[in-house]
Amino acid sequence: MITKSNVAEVVNSNYDILSRVQSQVASVKELGMAFRNAPIEAIKQYIAKHASLLMFPSNDLAYGGLVTYRDGRFYVHINTKQPKVYENFIWAHEFYHLYFEAEDIKSSDVSTYADGSALNERERNANLFAAELLINREVLADIYRGLCEMHPHDKLATQVIRLMPAFKLPYKALVIKLAQDKLIEMHEAEEIIDYPYQQQLPADFDSTLLLSSNSIQFDGIEELLQDATVKENMRATDYDTIAGLYAKHLTNFEKLL
After folding, report:
1. 124-149 per-position pLDDT tens digit
2. Residues 162 and 217 in one domain
3. Residue from 58, 57, 104, 52 nearest 223 by CA
4. 106 in a domain, yes or no?
5. pLDDT band at residue 244, thresholds of 50, 70 and 90?
6. Theoretical Cys-Cys bridge with 92: which of 39, 65, 130, 226, CB 3.0 to 4.6 Å?
């Protein structure tokens, strides 16, 4: 969890890997125009081609998603119980693991696990990649300065909240990026990172961005549920959730036949 106590360490740690991650972002943008102009949609299409996608709502809101490899198949899970802005970030986060760490995941028992960890090295790389891919530095600076001119009397936290609809990304991701790009001071980031923004939304804020999609999709689920390693290592609540949702939706589908 990123809080006032560690946000400066997170930003400073990001500087250590920023050059390498920016090179990775540049290489991904070379995959096609969509990765430059519609990265979330491009990521979804890439994952659909190269992995089995599991989308379902998990009640563990400390958990965003994971990538794992079982019996010749990659599985990517996105927790659609998360607010939409956070789900968007998780798509890019898990794409990083799938695209850049596929061989590591394939050759071991590694399962990436997005749980909001602040300083875990593997997850920090994926977080920074997601932010750099989804938040263009120049666009952020232009929009932020424009908002400050339009709403000169708003407090800093409110200005960050107003950035959320523009990027459709989480509040804390934007605070970190603003500090990293030196658009705000570090002490300002520390002051606002824990701000209870959900209770302080501007009247014109699109609150649907903070709702969860609760989308459900099961690709290759039968093979996953039958895998002994998955049964042994997946948390019981999520295994039961997947199995229950799959059975329910299979029954509903059969009713349509």
Report:
1. 999 999 999 999 999 999 999 999 99
2. no
3. 52
4. yes
5. low
6. 130
| Percent of the chain's residues with pLDDT above 90 | 65
Whether residue 122 is found in the same domain as residue 50: yes
In total, how many domains does the chain have?
2
CA–CA dist 232, 59 (Å, integer): 20
**61 and 125 both lie in a single domain:** yes
C-beta pairs of 101-104 under 8 Å, 24+ apart in sequence: 101/67, 102/69, 102/74
Mean pLDDT of the chain: 86
Adjacent-strand bridge partners of 77? 54, 66
pTM (2 d.p.): 0.83
Residue 2 lies in a domain: no
Give phi and psi for 74, each to the nearest 5: -85, 140
Q: Which domain holds residue 248?
A: 7-135+211-256
Q: Which of 235, 247, 243, 244 is nearest to 62 (CA)?
A: 235
Q: Report residue 17 as tokens.
A: 């890997």
Q: 127 and 88 in one domain?
A: yes
